[in-house]
Write a structure and sequence with these properties.
The structure is a homodimer. By secondary structure, chain A is an alpha+beta fold. Chain A is built from 8 helices and 12 strands.
Amino acid sequence: VWIGDDAAVFGPIEGRLLLTTDQAVAGVHADLELVGLDDLGWRAVARAISDVAAMGGRALRAVVAVAGPPTTDLDLLYRGVGACAEAHQCPVVGGDLSGAPGTTVTVSVVGHLPTGGPVLRSGAAPGDAILVTGPLGAAAAGLRLLRGERAARRASGPVDEVLIAAHRRPRALLAEGEAARLAGATAMIDVSDGLAADLGHVARTSGVGFALDHVPVAPGATAADALEGGDDYELVMTAPRADALVAAFRHVGLRAPIVIGACTADRSQATVAGTPIDGAGWEHPWQ
Amino acid sequence: VWIGDDAAVFGPIEGRLLLTTDQAVAGVHADLELVGLDDLGWRAVARAISDVAAMGGRALRAVVAVAGPPTTDLDLLYRGVGACAEAHQCPVVGGDLSGAPGTTVTVSVVGHLPTGGPVLRSGAAPGDAILVTGPLGAAAAGLRLLRGERAARRASGPVDEVLIAAHRRPRALLAEGEAARLAGATAMIDVSDGLAADLGHVARTSGVGFALDHVPVAPGATAADALEGGDDYELVMTAPRADALVAAFRHVGLRAPIVIGACTADRSQATVAGTPIDGAGWEHPWQ
């Protein structure tokens, strides 16, 4: 049952259910002078679906609440919402619309785990390998390109388009999340706030430290983009046996995750190539 | 799993699932010069749970996204959210928080139907009785009291407090909705926009007209409050046999619903005591 009745109806659904909600606010999560309202809508859907991916779940249905001024181009916004939902095979089954001073898109997604339990943030143990689904920093580099922060923007080429698309149209890695869960990942999170911050969440809730050997940098991005840039939506996971995860990904035709380091027993440890990551004063010595 | 992981986990859940999302926007759904941020939070939760009630479902879990300026008193807001969730036994299991120019609370609720299907808006047939769970207009009268629109506000007494509470702290009628579904209601909706508007939705989607004999008015409210005032969250339902619904409600200890009229085959019919309800020009002749 689509928008037009009081609630959407679906199922029954086997296994445990997942529920998450995320907002994309104009001026906070997207600068509408740089990207379109369709990109804002896409981002809101991708953020919520990525949370399901980070639990190892399958996305089932989404509902979308939009608040904004009367001048909001809703057709454009919903085109982005619909395109992202379709790209992730997660139908939008309902919504709400209201006036408001600023434009906010709130997406809630129901997912499920057909069998077994979720991969939480809290399951990492000392000695576990740390892996990431791909190189990082493309979204941050794309945003920088859009802002024209490079003195001379390079001649537009395939790499730039990829970087800008990474910022405008991020993908949630549902297949990768499920493969990691089935292959025995002990903890997992999506990189929405940046690798340093998100891996920090895993470390804190798991009671471990982490020692990274290196951070894979997306082509055209910088080391700072890769470590601190958010909104890549790559998945970071831990597992006692990295080779089992790599094999499982390859078995289902996915790009193998990259081993970037290991969890340590020292909760206070957060290093890249032996150098502490400690916020403000950190100078990216590994670049 | 509570806020702090990527998504909440619950279930497995038997039967079909319901999913709905609703917003409460400061200045649109609540005037913060008249009510508190806690009331705004309460309203957002009640609106979403009421959508589940209107399908005849049980509310299972809620997620709450809040956007607002940095000065927002989040403690106060979440107190209202939590109180409403607790009153309806629907735990809040996750959320999102963001800066934004205005304050918006978006609540998404998952519900379920342990057996059978939902009561849709589209199932009414000519000849079906129309019933409402209680007298209407209290929330609209309470809002008017808060606005001081009555030249001389009456001495504060029990009725006024009830009216103001009806506006500030509406309840979703979950037990009533489920009783109606189990007793064979053919269509149902919650009164959020006003009886005339919401019954109009049922009539349009069902392809029927309606002839109301009378509209029960809450003590202290006016006939206009009862017909056009929103946010009462009473349920309006249709059924071939009104007595079956009345008996079912009494059987589970609920106040019996009130028969207010019947569905007709003439889709253009929308009357109260024989007088058409036709928007702007309508002068409440039945008051």
